[in-house]
Amino acid sequence: MASAAFEEIIEDFEFLEDWEDRYRYVIERGKAMTPLDGALKVPATKVDGCASQVWLHPQITNGQFRFDGDSDAMIVRGLIAVLQALYNDLPLSDVGKVDARAEFARLGLTDHLSAQRSNGLRAMIERIRDTAATAT
Questions:
Q1: For residue 56, what is the enclosing H or E element?
Q2: What is the CA radius of gyration of the chain?
Q3: Could you give the CA distance from residue 14 to residue 3 in angstroms, rounded to a whole number?
Q4: In the predicted model, what is the mean pLDDT of residues 97-116?
Q5: How far apart are CA 30 and CA 81, in angstroms?
Q6: CB 30, CB 74: distance < 8 Å
Q7: Stretch (H or E) spanning 67
Q8: Angle between the 74-87 and 100-107 helix axes, to the nearest 10 degrees?
Q9: For domain 4-135, which architecture applies?
Q10: pTM score above 0.85
Q11: Eight-state DSSP code of residue 88
Q12: Where residue 115 falls among pLDDT bands split at 50, 70, 90?
């Protein structure tokens, strides 16, 4: 149940044979994100369980879910960008139906992240899912 934006990432990954190129691609996606306003980098938006500093700011408008985010680590900013492609603009009721781990496995990313990065990714996914569940 991936969005068109996430499917584009999968297609792009198919053209990148080398994992260094794929990491660069993820990092470039992170660099292209608009930085999160410093006023939103508060304890309430900080994600615990990440080795780096991570903030996610969810917004629910007319039953649609989206979030902005930021991190002090470039690869994590890229992972946030990939999560945005996966979750942003979904109906709130569909957020919990997304199997993010399976979708990331389609990219092969879960096999190439360090244990700390994998834990951080899980923490971000849990925060997104919990936010959506609380809002429904």
A1: strand 54-61
A2: 14
A3: 17
A4: 87
A5: 6
A6: yes
A7: strand 64-71
A8: 120
A9: Alpha-Beta Complex (3.90)
A10: yes
A11: T
A12: confident
Contacts of 10 (CB under 8 A, 6+ apart): 2, 106, 107
In this prediction, residue 129 has a pLDDT band, given cuts at 50, 70 and 90, of very high
Instruction: State which amino acid sits at residue 90.
Output: L
Residues 59/111, Cβ–Cβ less than 8 Å = no
Comparing C-alpha atoms, which of 70, 82, 77, 67 is closest to residue 130?
67
Nearest to 60 by CA among 90, 36, 82, 34: 90
The residue type found at 32 is A
Take residue 11 and report the two structure tokens written for it: 């297609």
Three-class secondary structure of residue 63 per DSSP: coil
User: H/E element holding 92?
Assistant: helix 92-95
CA–CA separation, 34 vs 16, rounded Å? 25
Catalytic residues: 50
Query: What is the structure's pLDDT at 110?
Result: 76
Alpha-carbon dihedral sign for residues 129, 133, 135, 136: positive
What integer pLDDT is reported at residue 1 of this predicted model? 61
